[in-house]
Design a protein that fits this description.
Blueprint (H helix, E strand, L loop, with lengths): L17 E2 L8 E6 L14 H8 L5 E2 L4 E2 L6 E6 L5 H5 L2 H10 L4 E6 L5 H12 L3 E5 L20 H7 L9 E5 L10 H6 L2 E4 H7 L1 H12 L4 E6 L21 H12 L4 E7 L10 H22 L14
Parallel strand pairs: 1-5, 2-5, 2-6, 6-11, 7-8, 7-10, 8-9, 10-11
Antiparallel strand pairs: 3-4
Length: 320
């Protein structure tokens, strides 16, 4: 009987990518930030990076776009940032480590974690690129908070803080899918006054995916863009594994089609995917969808490298 070797730890990576902290030669880099101490409802998103990695297979062909991403880009999985002291990491090691990764020229694809992590990420983007545009898919604006307590951070405040710290250009940024409800009629005032446009879910349902994508692309133009995607943009019927699910959202197909129509060809410098909580998942369907969204992000990177400027809706593998 052969003995089992327990000395070597096998590193779980996204899609079987090489595990490496050397990102200098990578077109994109998968990074986990297992952080959920700033949630306001149900915790569990610290398990998101692991759940998303486990859900993904090793295929590289995007049949909808018609491209084999492996022919154009290569990536590595950096692993998870160290969260042993999460409070210290939040405004300390997260922006520092993200800045070092960005400076190598790779495009980060961050797996969260609750949405509060986007603010320290944006601090790093600001240091490297200056204020960037954002495309924010979510059911909530995450611009809550107050002027009197700017040191308060949770997953409902990242974009208020990002505006206050000049991390983003709100006038060339857009929030998409808002439907999370309001405590007061003035809840959107801060975002509106800063020039941060948002598209309500009900309007998307009426005007359709392609028109919504046109508005997004028109808003951000040729600016450098950071894309942040909260999984609760998707209706809980399709993504129940999240801390703050909101009904009347979007199907998996609608989410993927909007990503393709809106993002392909833009000057995207980074992505994150947040609020996946596998402990509330049903049959792993949220993690499976999240892994596919990451694949669409990789497709956007590959399309940029291949000179593909928009989604052609081929529905066949012509470019493979």
């Amino acid at each position: 009987m052969n003995a089992i070797n327990t000395d070597k730890k096998v590193q779980l990576t996204y899609g079987g990518l090489k595990s490496s902290t050397d990102t200098s030669g990578a077109d994109y880099t998968i990074i986990g930030i297992p952080f959920d101490i700033r949630t306001t409802y149900r915790p569990g998103t610290r398990f998101g990076p692991d759940g998303i990695r486990r859900a993904f297979s090793t295929d590289s062909v995007n049949e909808a776009v018609g491209i084999d991403t492996s022919k154009y880009v290569k990536g590595v999985d950096y692993g998870d940032l160290d969260m042993w002291n999460a409070e210290k990491a939040y405004l300390g090691s997260i922006p520092q480590e993200m800045k070092a990764i960005l400076e190598t020229g790779t495009i980060p694809i961050v797996l969260g974690g609750d949405h509060s992590i986007t603010f320290p990420e944006l601090l790093a983007y600001k240091d490297v690129y200056g204020p960037v545009s954002i495309i924010h898919f979510d059911s909530h604006t995450d611009t809550w908070g107050s002027d009197t307590d700017k040191e308060h951070h949770d997953h409902s405040t990242p974009f208020r803080r990002a505006i206050e710290y000049d991390c983003i250009d709100p006038k060339t940024s857009i929030q998409v899918g808002m439907r999370g409800g309001l405590f007061e009629e003035s809840d959107f005032d801060f975002a509106n006054n800063a020039g941060l446009e948002h598209i309500y879910a009900v309007d998307i349902h009426h005007m359709g995916i392609e028109k919504t994508a046109e508005l997004i692309r028109e808003k951000v133009g040729n600016n450098k863009v950071m894309v942040t995607f909260d999984i609760d943009f998707v209706d809980p019927a399709f993504a129940p594994g999240t801390g703050t699910p909101v009904s009347c959202g979007f199907t998996s197909r609608q989410a993927l089609e909007l990503i393709r129509h809106a993002l392909i060809g833009l000057d995207i410098v980074g992505f994150d995917l947040v609020e996946v909580a596998p402990n509330y998942d049903a049959g792993g369907i949220t993690s499976i969808l999240a892994s596919r969204i990451v694949k669409e992000f990789i497709t956007c990177v590959a399309c940029k490298k291949a000179g593909i400027k928009e989604y052609a809706k081929k529905g066949m593998i012509e470019n493979v």
